[in-house]
Amino acid sequence: MISVLLAVVIQQLGVTGLRVEYLTNPLGIDTPRPRLSWRITSTERNTAQAAYEVRVSRNETLVWDSGRIASDSSVFVTYGGPALASRTRYVWRVRVWDTKGRVSPWSAAAFWETGLMQPSDWTAAWVGTAPSPTDSVGGPSPLFRRAFRLTGAVASARIYATSLGLYELYLNGQRVGDGLFTPGWTSYNRRLQYQTYDVTALLRSGPNAVGAELGDGWYRGQLGFNGQRNVYGKRLGLLLQLEIRYQDGRTERIVPDSAWRTSTGPILASDIYGGETYDARQERIGWANAGYDDRTWAPVQTLESPPPKSRLLAPESPPVRRVVELRPVGIRRSASGETIFDLGQNFTGWARLKVNGTAGTVVTLRFAEVLDRRGDLYTENLRRANQTDRYTLRGGGPETYEPHFTFHGFRYVGVRGLPAAADSSTITGIVVSSDLQETGAFETSDSLLNQLQHNIVWGQRSNFLDVPTDCPQRDERLGWTGDAQVFAPTAAYNFDVSGFFSKWLGDVAADQDVSGSLPWVIPDVLHADSANASGTAGWSDAAVIVPWTMYVAYGDRGLLARQYPSMRAWVEFERRRAGADLLWQPGWQFGDWLALHSDDPSYPGATTNTDFIATAYFAHSADLVAQAARALGKGDDAERYEALFRDVQAAFNREFVSATGRVGENTQTAYALAIAFHLLPDSLIRAAADRLAADVQARGVHLTTGFLGTPQLLPVLGGTGHLDVAYGLLMQRSYPSWLYPITRGATTMWERWDGIRPDSSFEDAGMNSFNHYAFGAVGAWMYSAIGGIQLDPQVPGGKAVWITPQPGGGLTFARAALETLYGRVMSSWKLDGPRFVLDVTVPPNTSANVLLWGTTAQAVRGAEGARDIQQRDRDVLIVVGSGNYQFTVSRSN
Ligand code: BGC
Predict the structure, then answer these.
(1) How confident is the model at residue 584 (pLDDT cuts 50, 70, 90)?
(2) Which of 4, 31, 124, 528 lies in disulfide reach of 241, CB 3.0 to 4.6 Å?
(3) From ligand 1's centre to the CA of 496, what distance in Å?
């Protein structure tokens, strides 16, 4: 015992947090050469990895020992052993040496398990129900079941499953897994995910039964704002393989065959936009159990032209799950007789209903984000999305209901038909989202700013539902590329979005046209309807910007290399569109979408020309492709795209920039894009930035920017000597501003600056979402400038970070933290009288450049353990290795 304790005390170097690709202990991956990541723990400062050793075993037999590899890489280290077999668990450990010669103990064991790596591993056939007239209009959800007998004790069992439409699985009456909306949403015509489940504990020797229920989902339900359905097909289908290994070594496989039966059940209709109609009297009690009598059920049919097995792939992202439950904060009766529950927070999910009443009673639940002036649900902004659930009671005791294949965007639930008086247990808000690890924390001394951070996080939680969507409530909920592009940097602070975006980028590449053009939404469900649904500046540039953003955030060169052809193809498309003069004179463009519009002559709106925006984005994407080419060691390409960037830059300046630094139409967005994208000559940046600041001031410190200008506004002001103006905009409470919606009770980001106008009227119901994350793109500036944590594109993934807090705005403290792949980075400052105190945490195997503004090296305390300290003009740069530091700056002068 004593020796164990001693070992713990003395042993200061350790390895933890083992990940494979983007997941911890993943079950069912199909990457031929998975990349391994780990975190180093150390009680000493300046810990850096000098070497590592990875050992991988299979059935306790070593299959790969990397040997001692001299390297500081601790993330995305490629497995280098023999080819992986399907359906096999690989157990791995790692140990590291640090630069001081210490060696860590072997890490605790972690694993990955392969899924079905080859199409030929799938022996099951796709099954469905007999074709029915309701197939194309949405009908009852089909149930599928099969009873089977196991002839011995089970050592291990897996289900590999996917569907056309959504599925939920059951084994012996128990729900399999806790993922929702499986198999997830991908470009189904090209990529279809399957899931792997460990079902060992759900099976027993003797009789068993497996059941599946299917929903229309994205596959054939309503999708898109034109009322279309059946976007991917008309018939639902199930593909399922249950593989069993007995303790005596025998194996068995249960796949759909003629013994599978199908019927309908209690879900009479279910639609992502429309909601669910559920009649509990139609429940088939025990339908997924062995003893159930299914003689009246129909045999399943084999699908005639099912998707090829080569289209199947394992998930890269965590599944959608129930992530939070919300209790009502208010219950009242509306004038129209509805009982309205206020869940206190706008979100995505549904309501769990608890009722007790007579059979046949129908309870109707409607959902809305806001109330109108009369206190009724405001649903006009939902357009064609009815989001209404109807539950018919089975009777005979307390009943609990949650829908299955739908989700709603809401804060308020309006309920009719309750058999008894409501109380706070009648309705529970169930928040659903891709179950991403929260990696960011941000807090300041200002409560409205903290609420803004809260609203950004909830906007993300609401709209990261397997795909980055624009909104969760109206008849869209689509993977709008422009929204995703502007928000991605903020998203990567708040949550670990590595696997989430890697999956989505797979669909970006898959849905990209051969011309390089990219649809408006990914997965592309509008294309069929609109010849124009592609090739749009600021939207399609997502093909370049999102991979680059992920590279900066996670340092995953593999992903960058995978996306590189898609990135380049988009820039080549832009080049062709622009033609010889390199000015992209657009066809259809969204431009600076939802920029301020105003009829007030004293406060004019601001329209930035779409050809200006298109050419600016063209230059920016060329620049990022050049940087990506450099990062990937593609020297020739880097030079080519650097030259292209310079040429577009020159064309842009000739066309849009005056000799005195007037840019475009003199809008805030014009200056923000031109400066942020490095389009102006150095000699004009100051003048242009001053014009931008002057416009903001002239409007009483207000903004005019839309989706594209907004993310760049504060970084550009803050980076050009106008930090006070940047803070002024951020802390502005009057319309238009980020904090204005908060003064109106917002709990998520609004789509429009004036979703609810100062006179309390609503913006145009045709487009007025209260849960759109795009304007939340300001979050990246809050983390990087206020909190001070900034990633370094040259040393990406947090291997080196910048700590550059810039106090202002009357704040007396700010704290930001970011969980990178290496560990937790923290930057926390406070103003303590004349002293500025900064606490910094730098994780092992990384370094930080701490930049203290407007001071001298002599005025700084706490830099003793630093690797380097330099005066840089009026600032002090301190380079530190891992560990905790406290710097104090006395501002007595
Ligand atoms: C969506 C967006 C999207 C836009 C394109 C809207 O209807 O909700 O957020 O980017 O269309 O302009």
Answers:
(1) very high
(2) 124
(3) 25
Q: Are 849 and 810 in contact (CB under 8 A)?
A: no
Q: How far does residue 738's CA lie from ligand 1's centre (Å)?
A: 19
Which is the closest atom of ligand 1 to the Cα of 767?
Answer: 7
Name the residue among 96, 95, 93 with its Cα closest to residue 110.
93
CA of 739 to the centre of ligand 1 (A): 22
The dihedral built from the CA positions of residue 258, 260, 262 and 267, taken in this order, carries a sign that is: negative
- Half-sphere exposure in the Cβ direction for 678 (13 Å, CA): 10
- Residue 305 — left, alpha, or beta (φ > 0 → left; ψ -120 to 50 → alpha)? beta
The SS3 of residue 286 is coil
Alpha-carbon distances of 447 from 203, 254, 442, 742, rounded to whole Å: 52, 57, 12, 10
pLDDT digit string (tens) for 818-842?
999 999 999 999 999 999 999 999 9
Show Cβ contacts of residue 749 under 8 Å, excluding neighbours closer than 6 positions.
455, 456, 459, 741, 771, 772, 773, 774, 775, 776
| Nearest C-alpha neighbor of 885 from the set 855, 852, 857, 850 | 850
CA atoms of 726 and 721, how far apart (whole Å): 10
- Is 316 in the active site? no
Q: Phi/psi at 271 (nearest 5 deg)? A: -150, 140
d(CA 289, CA 173): 5
Tokens of 592: 């600076």
Task: Write out the H or E segment, with its range, that includes residue 805.
Answer: none
> Tokens 């928040």, residue?
431
pLDDT (mean) for 435-442: 98
Q: What are the angstrom distances between the C-alpha of 356 and each of 124, 280, 286, 353, 402?
A: 43, 13, 22, 10, 15
259-272: average pLDDT: 96
Question: How far is it, in rounded angstroms, from Cα 625 to Cα 580?
Answer: 20
Amino acid identity of residue 314, one-letter, is: A
501 pLDDT above the threshold of 80: yes
Residue 672 C-alpha from the chain's centroid: 26
Ligand 1, atom 2: closest residue by C-alpha: 470
Tell me the C-alpha distance between 356 and 374, whole Å: 30
Report residue 292 CA to chain centroid gap: 41
Contacts of 447 (CB under 8 A, 6+ apart): none
Instruction: Give yes or no for residue 893 having a pLDDT over 50.
Output: no
H helix intervals, 632-722: 635-656, 668-676, 682-698, 710-719
How far, in Å, is the centroid of ligand 1 from the Cα of 161? 33
- Please name the amino acid found at residue 303: L
- Rounded CA gap, 392 and 787, in Å? 51
**Ligand 1 atom nearest to CA at 594:** 12
| Residue 365, Ramachandran bin (φ over 0: left; ψ between -120 and 50: alpha; else beta) | beta
Ligand 1: which residue has its CA nearest to atom 9?
A: 470
The residues facing 889 across adjacent strands are: 836, 860
Give the Å distances, CA to CA, from 17 to 41, 103, 419, 713.
10, 17, 50, 37
Q: Which atom of ligand 1 is nearest to the CA of 774?
A: 9
Taking residues 180-191, report their average pLDDT.
98
Q: Does the pLDDT at position 313 exceed 80? A: yes
- Residue 171 has φ and ψ, to the nearest 5°, of -130, 125
Predicted confidence band at 468 (pLDDT cuts at 50, 70, 90)?
Answer: very high
* 21 among known catalytic residues: no
